[in-house]
Design goal:
Helices cover 47% and strands 11% of the residues. With 876 residues, the protein is α/β, with parallel strands linked by helices. A hairpin with a 2-residue loop joins strand 18 and strand 19.
Length: 876
């Protein structure tokens, strides 16, 4: 054993090392071979997997191909037509063919070449009709080929009828129809070759009849008929409910199903009771709707809640509101909003009706109180006979209640669905809301679809719809949908008459109501300018900006009395607001020395704006002395005669400043225009001064940050670029509008698309003439006069004691250089800007230079030094 252990140890020390060293090169080569084989095997597996994946993807793409769907749908539809033809032929030729096809398989019939059948669809049709009619569901087996035809049409993208509805109708008809046919037709025609209920109907009918008898079967058949009638005609359900309700002697009139019912009120001596829950309530629970909206006819008076009421109260009819032209087609719903109810009477009549009647006791109390307390101040007393413009002055366009082009709606819907489907986006539902110029399609995408994918398809959807421009709202604020706004092919005109005559505008109680137009849902859009408090209007040339300004002014003229509102109109174009010159003594305000109330001279704009800032400061001082915070509280105190006019208090009307072509003013006057506008926009809200400025150049050097910060309400008509849209609205969208009054209104973060009401120039002219012919004030509302700093404005009215020591040298400098510049004086004499400005004001009062012209140098009136010396001698 010791010898064996020694031998093993020696072999381990010598031989093992040699053997290992000799086998190492062989093992590495073998490893390389194995790794190469593995790589080849892996590559083959990957190639096979990728080819299988490609074959699978190609097969899936083949199945998703629309052409394949169409061809397969044609085949299925033809199969359904063939089956229907065979069943129809079976009713006429089935008796002759019955003995030939019974107890034979289809294979045996096709192999027998001598067999002749009378069925129009030959041997296959005879076998198929015999199986479907006699062995399956009887005559109601005709529903099967109709369902097959429907499947083919659905594959061809021809039918949009709901698959669930079609399947339910087919299954319900087969089951109930076969049972009813077996019971009725089987008894009427027992010897016919047709098994009227089929094997299914006959067996089920025998089981039911043995259980409930013939009366039970009759009730069951009537139940089937009732269910089918209710499914296909929903109005029949309301008629049945109305019949059952009218059969009850007394009812409270609240039909839980929302159906129209006639109410019978109890006699006066009997208290009104609530019906006890019983069989009636259980019957009506079948058609129950959650909180149905009810519309009460206006010519019927509802019962009073008090116990004293007439012996026989008139009956009233309560009807559920049903939207006109509402289409239910699969998951597609088209909503056509109703037009607003309009008031046809004139404005003065409406004002008279709004005045509440005064009771006799109240009159006596007022007569007694007149001795001690003065009556309230009436700001309208000076123009108590003033009549608001009538509706006849506005043009009526016959575009209301126009039928919706359902073909256009369905085409747009299909194009939207197909475009999204081409990019792998499926939707679960789509709804259309038709407006005057725009249709809003609200879609609900399937779970897992990113909103950004749909938003990026804006141009592709516009291309497929051949639309001028679409806008995608993703998501809709306050809704779980994505909105796609598409222009209508036949847009309607929104007239100013339809907006002004609406109940919503006539009955609104806003301080400064403005009716802009109608939204996509055909709802009149009205806002209160006093709460905005300032409005910025922008848009390219010819897109409806001037019409929008006229709509704002017209709304105010139809609602506010001349004593309650004044306007300052700035029109650098000289032609837009000229038609309002006839209402100068009623509604306009101007400087005391101004010839015209419509400001067209750019040099007068600065003076007017400075005058408005002084008016603002004066009003704030009045509010401070009256210890109130807003103009509304101040005027209420003044009307109640709690403020003494002898102390400077007066009734304060609202002042609306409308500036057209603001960009032109900025280019000519620059900061001298922007600074007073910024002051008014920042502070003037509380004192009833509001601004509306418009520009056709929505660039950053025109609409600066100071202007944007103080004009939170903005109206954007169509612009040419996204940059301009972001400048106006801080968002895109204005560049996708279609023009002609189509606009976006922004108040905060929400954008509302509105079709601006159209008011033509002849309409505005007639309104102005109607107001101008009435008695007005003696003159236009006078704005405060602004006195320049340092004294009067007369030339030469400069006191020698107030002159600067450098006055004469500065005058000579300006005449020599023929340049009236404050910076020139500041630079040549090394003085500060304030002293140089005072020197320039003194030189202006001396008549040497003209007034400031914004960034341009002043005009120099003295042409040479000799004339200057003569003027200086006279001043000494």
């Amino acid at each position: 054993m010791q010898l064996l252990a020694f031998f093993i140890t020696f072999a381990g020390k010598n031989g093992a090392i040699k053997i290992e060293s000799s086998r190492c090169p062989l093992s590495k080569a073998r490893r390389r071979t194995i790794m190469a084989k593995r790589k080849k095997t892996t590559a083959k597996r990957k190639t096979a997997a990728s080819s299988a994946r490609k074959r699978k993807n190609s097969f899936i793409n083949f199945l998703k191909n629309e052409r394949v769907h169409f061809i397969f749908g044609v085949l299925v539809a033809f199969l359904g037509i063939f089956t229907l033809l065979a069943i129809i032929s079976f009713f006429f030729t089935g008796a002759a063919d019955q003995s030939k096809v019974l107890n034979k398989s289809f294979w045996e019939l096709t192999q027998d070449k001598q067999l002749e059948v009378a069925n129009w669809a030959s041997t296959g049709g005879a076998f198929l009709s015999e199986t479907l009619v006699n062995k399956w569901f009887g005559v109601f087996s005709m529903l099967i080929p109709f369902f097959v035809i429907y499947l083919g049409l659905r594959m061809m993208k021809v039918s949009n009828f709901s698959f669930i509805k079609a399947l339910f109708i087919t299954a319900f008809g087969l089951i109930c129809g076969s049972i009813s046919s077996a019971f009725i037709l089987g008894r009427l025609f027992p010897k016919s070759h047709i098994n009227w209920g089929g094997a299914h109907g006959s067996q089920i009918e025998q089981i039911i009849e043995s259980s409930v008898g013939v009366p039970g079967m009759i009730l069951l058949v009537l139940l089937f008929i009732l269910i089918i009638v209710v499914i296909f005609r929903q109005s029949s359900m309301h008629k049945i409910q109305e019949t059952l309700i009218n059969s009850k002697p007394s009812f409270n009139g609240k039909n839980e199903s929302g159906a129209p019912i006639e109410l019978e009120f109890n006699e006066p001596d009997e208290p009104e009771r609530e019906p006890k829950p019983g069989i009636w309530k259980k019957l009506f629970a079948f058609g129950k709707k959650d909180n149905p909206e009810l519309e009460i006819e206006p010519n019927v008076v509802p019962p009073p809640t008090a116990p004293e009421r007439p012996d026989k109260a008139p009956a009233r009819v309560v009807k559920p509101i049903v939207k006109d032209n509402e289409l239910e087609n699969d998951a597609f719903e088209v909503i056509v909003p109703k037009d607003e109810v309009q008031i046809t009477k004139t404005a003065p009549e409406a004002e008279e009706e709004k005045t509440p009647p005064v009771a006799e006791s109240d009159k006596e109390n007022e007569a007694e109180s007149d001795v001690e307390i003065m009556e309230d101040y009436d700001p309208k007393k000076d123009l108590s006979s003033f009549a608001f413009p009538t509706m006849e002055l506005l043009k009526v366009y016959n575009t209301g209640n126009k039928e919706v082009d359902m073909q256009e709606q369905n085409e747009n819907k299909n194009k939207i669905i197909h475009t999204l489907r081409n990019y792998g986006i499926e939707i679960t539902s789509i709804k259309a809301t038709v407006g005057p110029t725009i249709t809003l399609y609200e879609i609900v995408p399937q779970a897992g679809v990113r909103i950004s994918r749909i938003r990026n398809l804006e141009d592709d959807i516009a291309l497929s719809l051949s639309a001028l421009g679409i806008r995608i709202i993703a998501p809709m604020p306050g809704k779980g949908t994505i909105g796609i706004e598409v222009p209508n092919k036949d847009p309607q005109i929104v007239s100013m008459q339809s907006v002004i005559a609406s109940v919503k505008f006539q009955e609104c109680t806003y301080d400064l109501p403005v009716a802009l137009g109608k939204t996509i849902t055909n709802e009149v859009f009205i806002f209160d300018l006093a709460k905005m408090p300032h409005l910025l209007v922008a848009g390219a040339t010819g897109q409806g900006k001037s019409v929008g300004l006229n709509a704002i002014i017209t709304s105010l003229l139809y609602k506010k009395h001349p004593s309650e509102m004044k306007m300052v109109l700035v029109d650098p174009k000289m032609v837009e607001f000229n038609i309002y010159s006839t209402i100068e003594k009623h509604y306009l305000a101007k400087l005391p020395d101004a010839e015209k109330a419509i400001i067209t001279d750019v040099s007068k704009v600065t003076q007017t704006l400075n005058s408005l800032t002084k008016e603002m400061d004066d009003r704030y001082e009045l509010l401070m002395r009256a210890k109130v915070r807003a103009i509304k509280e101040y005027n209420e105190k003044f009307i109640k005669r709690r403020l003494n006019p002898n102390n400077g208090h007066r009734y304060l009307p609202y002042i609306v400043v409308v500036i057209d072509e603001f960009g032109d003013l900025i280019m000519t006057a620059g900061k001298e225009i922007e600074m007073p506008i910024a002051r008014i926009a920042q502070k003037a809200r509380a004192v009833g001064m509001h601004m509306v400025i418009a520009t056709q150049r929505p660039t950053t050097n025109i609409i600066t940050g100071t202007i944007k910060a103080n004009f939170p309400a903005r109206m954007a008509f169509r612009v040419t670029s996204q940059i301009d849209s972001r400048t106006i609205l801080d968002a895109t969208g204005a560049n996708q509008l279609i023009g002609r009054g189509d606009m976006l209104f922004s108040q905060g973060s929400n954008l509302i698309r509105i079709q601006c009401a159209f008011v033509d120039t002849p309409e505005v002219e007639e309104i102005s003439q109607y107001i101008g012919k009435q008695r007005g004030y003696e003159s236009a509302f006078a704005l405060p006069e602004v006195i320049a700093e340092g004294g009067g404005d007369d030339k030469g009215s400069l006191d020698s004691n107030e002159r600067d020591a450098l006055f004469e040298e500065a005058a000579r400098l300006i005449v020599v250089h023929q340049q009236g510049s404050t910076s020139l004086i500041q630079r040549k004499f090394s003085i500060g800007y304030n002293r140089a400005g005072r020197l320039m004001d003194q030189i202006e009062r001396a008549g040497i230079v003209g007034p400031a012209q914004g960034s341009k140098p002043r005009d120099v009136y003295i042409s040479d030094e000799y004339s200057l010396e003569k003027l200086l001698d006279s001043l000494r």
